[in-house]
Amino acid sequence: MESFEPLLQELGAIKWLLVFIAAGVALIAATFFFLAVNIIAVMKENRRGNSSQSKHAELEDLLASGQSTAAKFTAMEWVAAQPRRPEAHWALAKAHYQLGELSEAKQVLTGLLKVAPEEHYRVDAWLELLESEFSQKRPKSVE
Question: Is residue 142 part of a domain?
Fold first, then answer.
């Protein structure tokens, strides 16, 4: 019976060693899972960013070449796909402005303030421009 005592002590040590190994494997698996989820999220965000950059470039080209109607519909699609993206709202407002749709441009800009209030310094300047154009295009009173 005494010969089993050292063997039982060794088995107890092995048991604790296996517990620590299992805990280490679980920790490594959890770390791998955490990293994989974050890498996938970063890849999705980069894909969205690349898509936005290409959309922005496409819209700038359309607006620069005077294709305002095409720019308007492209910007509307972009706003529908990414409603929290300020650049999409800016592009849509520019397209409305080029088409002479001043009230629609004003609506888009006020909507932009709800999405991105930090853009107020740029939006306010555009709203002032729109107001001055509204006042120029209003019919004059006959006296």
Answer: no
- Is the CB of residue 59 less than 8 Å from the CB of residue 71? yes
Q: Is residue 110 part of a domain?
A: yes
Domain containing residue 14: CATH number: 1.25.40.10
| Residue numbers of the domain that contains 88 | 4-137
Looking at the structure of the chain, the number of domains it has is 1
The amino acid occupying position 3 is S
User: Minimal CA–CA distance to 91: which of 124, 119, 56?
Assistant: 56
Residue 4's alpha-carbon distances to 7, 10, 11, in angstroms, are 5, 10, 10
Question: What residues have CB less than 8 Å from 93, skipping those under 6 apart?
Answer: 105, 108, 109, 112, 126
Q: Which two tokens stand for residue 108?
A: 């888009």
Written as tens digits, the pLDDT of the chain (143 aa) is 567 788 888 888 899 999 999 999 999 999 999 999 998 888 887 776 666 677 888 888 888 888 888 889 888 988 998 888 888 898 899 898 888 888 898 899 888 888 888 888 888 888 888 888 877 776 555 65
